[in-house]
Amino acid sequence: MRVGWIYVFLAAFIEIFWVLGLKYSVNIWMWIGTIIIIILSFIFVIKACEKLPSGTVYAVFTGLGAASIAIVDFVLLGADFTYAKGLFISLIIFGVVGIQLTTAEVE
C-alpha cells in the first residue's frame, strides 16, 4: 500500500477517538489527551499531503472520519439507525474508495 494512503487512513482512524474525546472529555487530563490526539491526526494529514493532492487527502480524511464516527454511534453508542442513513454512509464509503482508486501518489 502507498505511504500517503496509509497516512490518510491513520488520520481518519485517529479522528474517531478525538471526536469521541470532544464529546466525552470531563476533566483536564481527558482534554489534554484529546488535544494530543487531534495534533497526531493532523500530523498524519500533513504527511499525507506531502504524497497526495491536498484536496484528495482532505476529502478522504473527512469522509472516512464521518462514516466511521456514524458507524461507531450506531454500533456502540445506541444512535438511531435508519436504512436511509445506512445508504448515505455507504455512498460516502464508495466515494472514498473511488477517490483512492483514481488518485496517484506524487513521487
Radius of gyration: 15 Å
Instruction: Sketch the major β-sheet.
Output: none
Count of alpha/pi helices: 4
Q: What is the structural class?
A: mainly alpha
What's the total number of strands? 0
The topology string of helices and strands comes to: HHHH
Overall mean confidence score, pLDDT:
90
The geometry reads as flat
Q: Specify the helix fraction band.
A: over 70%
The tally of domains stands at 1
Q: Determine the N-to-C terminus distance.
A: 14 Å
- Unreliable residue stretches: none
Strand content: under 5%
What descriptive keywords fit this protein?
107 residues; 4 helices; 82% helix; flat
Write up this protein.
This protein has 107 residues and is mostly helical. The protein is 82% helix and 0% strand. α1 (3-24) runs antiparallel to α2, α1 (3-24) crosses α3 and α2 (28-51) packs across α3. The longest helix is centred in the middle third of the chain and has 24 residues, at 28-51. The protein is flat and about 45 Å long. The two termini are 14 Å apart.
